[in-house]
Structures are given as C-alpha cells and as structure tokens.
Amino acid sequence: MITPERIEQPTIAGERIALEGFLDYQRATLAMKCAGLDDKSLREASVPPSGLTLLGLVRHMADVERHWFRRILTGETSATPIFYSDEDLDGDFRTSEQDTAEEAFTAWQAEVAAAREAAGGHSLDDQSVGTRANGDRVDLRWILLHMIEEYARHNGHADLIRERIDGVTGD
C-alpha cells in the first residue's frame, strides 16, 4: 500500500495548478483514510444494509480514473473496466475474501499515473475524444472538476467508514 502524503495547496495559483493540486489532495486523502489497515479491515462494511468498504472505494476510484481520463478524455476503447462489468455495474464496490489491498492499490495507482499522463498532453480547454452517456463531450477542465467532486464525495464516505473501523477521525 502507498504511504499518503497530502500537500497543502498554494492559496494563489493558476487554474491548472489549482485544479490538479486539489485533485491530488483528494487522492491523497483517500489513501490516508486507508493507511495502516489490513485487508480484513479494508473489507469491513460501513453500516448495514450498506456494503460500502474502503477497499471498494479504492477499486471504484481506480475504475473512475480509468473511465474519465483514458476512455473519455483520450478515447482509449481498450481501457475496459477493471473491477466492474456490464453484467455487474457495482462490482467495483463489492469485495470478497480474495480481493486484496495490494491488487486494488496497484490498480488505483497505475490509473492515477495514466490519468496524469493523459491530462499532461492536453490543455484545460481540449475536448474529450469520448463522450458522456448522454453523448456530450467534455473538456479537461470539466473532467478535473468532476474528479475532485467524485473524490470529495467518496472521501466523506471513507471518513465515516474509517471512524467505524477503529475510531480514527480527521480531515
């Protein structure tokens, strides 16, 4: 598993530096919420009837990174989902005894690296090759903002799950 390092963002920055910085901060927050836990704890569900787990969130975010940066931004059709399928759209959230933190974190970090590489080749105004489900194209700015929102929402879930597991709280 990775050792999280959250870097505070400058209070005065250009738009791209600010967007990418806030996204990296949110990524590091998810890693921080998982830090120090074993596979069993990472698979521990939040509160019945929810089956939401920290490991499921990491798997989900690996697929989200892959989807928006590789499939939508660059149009890479070979970047199929890692943990879910058309037959099981929530497969990324569901975990079993066979699912490990090593597998999930390796996939997530690989997708974060691929996302950074994909974004690095585009300006904020560049439009995506792929489209959203409704057929709309988006620009890189929209993807970065959406990813910040996606992480922030799920980091709120991660806060509650972690507190339930071992009482650890914090931003």
Write the layout of secondary structure elements.
Blueprint: H1 15-34, H2 39-42, H3 54-73, H4 101-120, H5 140-166
Helix pairs in contact: 1-3, 1-5, 3-4, 3-5
Description:
By secondary structure, this protein is mainly α. The protein has one domain (15-166): dinb family like domain (Four Helix Bundle (Hemerythrin (Met), subunit A)). 53% of the residues lie in helices and 0% in strands. The chain is built from five helices and no strands. The protein has helices at residues 15-34, 39-42, 54-73, 101-120, 140-166. Helix 1 (15-34) packs antiparallel against helix 3 (54-73) and helix 3 runs antiparallel to helix 5 (140-166). The chain is globular. The relative contact order is 0.18.
Tally of DSSP helical segments: 5
What structural class do helix, strand and pairing data support? mainly alpha
Q: Provide the CATH architecture.
A: Up-down Bundle
Number of E strands: 0
The largest β sheet comes out as: none
Distance between the termini: 20 Å
**Residue-averaged pLDDT, rounded?**
94
CATH class: Mainly Alpha
User: What is the percentage of strand-forming residues?
Assistant: under 5%
Helix content: 40-55%
**CATH fold field value:** Four Helix Bundle (Hemerythrin (Met), subunit A)
- Domains, number: 1
Summarize the structure in short.
With 171 residues, this protein is mainly α. 53% of the residues lie in helices and 0% in strands.
Which labels suit this protein?
171 residues; mainly alpha; Four Helix Bundle (Hemerythrin (Met), subunit A); 5 helices; globular
